[in-house]
Amino acid sequence: MSTRRWFRLPDHYEVGREKIREFARAVQNDHPVHRDDECARKLGYLGVVAPPTFTAILTVNGIRAVLNTVLPDRDLSQVLHAEQTFEIHRAVVAGDRLRCAVQITSIRSPADTDFVALRFVVTDQSGYLVRVESTTLAIRRGESVRPDIARLVDTVAMRGDGDRTPYLIPITAAADLPTSASGPYRGPDVDTVPRADRLAVGQALPPRAARLTRGDLVNYAGVSGDPNPIHFSDAAAEFAGLPTVVAHGMLTMGVTAGYLTSWLGDPTAIRTFGVRFSRPAEIPARAAADLELTGRIRALGPDTATVALDVRAAGEQLFSRAFAEVQLSATTFE
C-alpha cells in the first residue's frame, strides 16, 4: 500500500466547555483553568482551556477511520499504541472548531505485526495550526489474529455508531493540504511557577502518585471515544494476549501531562510532549494500579526547559522514553 497520502476527517470537531471539564477529570488534570471560566480569563483566554492531550479525541477518531477506510483487514482489538508525540502550537479553548488531516507516513511489517506511523495535523476555524501529532501503532495481523477475537469484539464493543462509523476523505487538491511548518506559539504569555534561572540541569521534579481503576478506564473510554475492548473486557484482553485489562496509553499520557502541568502551574506551557510506550499499565479486576511519576530537568534554555519523565506501575516502566519541552515565564528581577 502506498504511504504519504493525505486524508481528512469529514467534519469539524466543536470543542465544548463541558467536554473539556469531562476530559480533564478523566485524565486527572486538576488545574482550575480546565473548569473555571474566570481563571481562564485571568490567563488571557476567552473560555476554559483544554488539557494538553485533549486532541487525543480526534486522534482516536482518526485511528478508527484509518482502520475502517485504509486498513479494513486490521482489527481494533489488535491495536496497541507504540509511540505518541504532541507538538503544541496553541491552546485549545471552549468554542474552537477543529479540523483534522491524517497522513500515513510509513508501514513496517516485521514478523506478524504492522507498525503503522501516522501524522495528524489539527487546525482551528481560522486555519491556524493547533497540534501536530505523530503516532505509531503496533497492529497484530495474519495468523496471530484468531477468528474468535472478531466474534468476541462484536459482543463487547460499543454499539450505536450506525452510519456514523468514522471514515476518511482523500485530500487531492494541493491547496487543501495542511501545513505542519513550525511557527511561534499563538496565545497569551505563559505564567509558570518555575523560572529558568532558578532551575538546574539534573534537578528533580517533586514526585507524584496517581491511581487508575477499572472505573477510570471505562470513563476515559467514553470521554475519549476509544472503544477498544482490551481496556474494559477481561475476555478481550485475554484473546489479545494480555494478562488482564490494560489502561489506554493515551490515558497514562494524559495523567503524566497533568503531573507536568501541576509543577509548571500553567497547562499552556507545554510545547512538545512525547513518549515511547514500553508496556501498558495492568488494571486487575479487584485492585487499582498505583502510578509513580517523576521527572528531571535534562536541558535548559534562556526561557525553556526539557524535562525527562518517568512513570512506573508495580515498579515497571510504562514509557521507555518520555520527554517534554516547556516554555518558562520570563525571569523577574527582585
Describe the structure.
This protein has helices at 17-26, 37-42, 56-69, 147-156, 214-224, 234-239, 249-264; strands at 6-8, 13-14, 79-88, 97-108, 113-123, 129-140, 169-170, 208-212, 270-277, 289-300, 304-313, 316-317, 319-327. Helix 1 runs antiparallel to helix 5 (214-224). It has a single domain (5-173, 189-327), classed as Thiol Ester Dehydrase, Chain A (Roll), CATH 3.10.129.10. The mean pLDDT is 89. It is 22% helix and 29% strand. The chain is an alpha+beta fold and 334 residues long. Strands 1, 2, 3, 4, 5, 6, 7, 8, 9, 10, 11, 12 and 13 form a 13-stranded antiparallel beta sheet that branches. The longest helix is centred in the C-terminal third of the chain and has 16 residues, at 249-264. It is built from seven helices and 13 strands. This is (R)-hydratase. GO terms for molecular function: fatty acid synthase activity. It holds the Pfam family MaoC_dehydratas.
CATH level 1 class label: Alpha Beta
| Major β-sheet annotation | 13 strands, antiparallel
Q: Based on the coordinates given, report the CATH architecture.
A: Roll
Helix fraction by DSSP (H/I, runs of at least 4): 10-25%
- Kindly state the number of beta strands: 13
Number of helices: 7
Mean pLDDT: 89
Task: Give a short summary of the structure.
With 334 residues, the chain is α+β, with helices and mostly antiparallel strands. The protein has seven helices and 13 strands. A hairpin with a 3-residue loop joins strand 10 and strand 11.
